């Protein structure tokens, strides 16, 4: 049986206990043994991390020990998947640039606050994750992120919608969902999920999460089947 950890905590405003329970239940429905952790200390056990297929983060802001980031980076590099949504992945540990490098982006603003109505545009043909999905509307925070140019964008939204200082620039398409690779590991992110109920109000958002988690969690088995190792990723560069 595949194994997944769902790690919850940080700022309570993002309802980490609700999203974690939702994602864990979904993973169990997909045949995973899913364990929810309330502390980052589980990241201190590198061997336990490397035995997983997937880690899902629901932890906004806060701080993380350097050792914990190093361990997760090694585990994901070896094939363990990493997934998350909204601030639970890409607004975790704002001071940790290596975390941002691994996840593919960092939240910087949500002009208009909560309650902004906008459209999520599916990038047809970008990935099997979005096959058959259609554009949909969301009423929530409209996430503006600084992103890694290496990400593969699966869905996006148009800025600006509400006035703020950024409106002096040309309109831009901001990624909502993306994938990227970290060594042999697969990373999936979706910017939706300010409150847990967005996944009920916009069911396509939940389908995105489920498919994204499944895709990320399949990377370890694929790496093993292909005989992939981490040797080609070794570097003398320091993490910090």
Describe this structure in words.
This protein is of the alpha/beta class and 240 residues long. It has a single domain (2-231), classed as Class I glutamine amidotransferase (GATase) domain (Rossmann fold), CATH 3.40.50.880. It is built from eight helices and eleven strands. It has helices spanning 16-29, 46-50, 66-77, 87-90, 97-103, 198-201, 203-217, 219-225, and strands at 2-10, 32-37, 54-60, 81-85, 105-109, 116-122, 136-140, 144-147, 152-159, 172-182, 185-190. A nine-stranded mixed sheet has the order 2-1-3-4-11-10-9-6-7, with helices on both faces. A two-stranded antiparallel ribbon has the order 5-8. The longest helix is centred in the C-terminal third of the chain and has 15 residues, at 203-217. The model has no long low-confidence stretch (mean pLDDT 97).
Fold blueprint:
Blueprint (H helix, E strand, L loop, with lengths): L1 E9 L5 H14 L2 E6 L8 H5 L3 E7 L5 H12 L3 E5 L1 H4 L6 H7 L1 E5 L6 E7 L13 E5 L3 E4 L4 E8 L12 E11 L2 E6 L7 H4 L1 H15 L1 H7 L15
Parallel strand pairs: 1-2, 1-3, 3-4, 4-11
Antiparallel strand pairs: 5-8, 6-7, 6-9, 9-10, 10-11
Can you identify the CATH class? Alpha Beta
Find the count of extended strands (DSSP E, 2+ residues).
11
Low-confidence stretches: none
Mean pLDDT: 97
Query: Using only CA atoms, what is the Rg?
Result: 17 Å
CATH topology type:
Rossmann fold
Strand/helix succession? EHEHEHEHHEEEEEEEHHH
CATH architecture: 3-Layer(aba) Sandwich
Structural class: alpha/beta
Assembly status = single chain
Number of helices: 8
Query: What is the helix fraction of residues, given as a range?
Result: 25-40%
Amount of beta strand: 25-35%
Give the overall shape. globular
Overall tally of domains:
1
How would you name the CATH homologous superfamily? Class I glutamine amidotransferase (GATase) domain
For the termini, the CA-CA separation is 36 Å
For the biggest sheet, the summary is: 9 strands, mixed
User: How do the strands line up in the largest sheet?
Assistant: 2-1-3-4-11-10-9-6-7
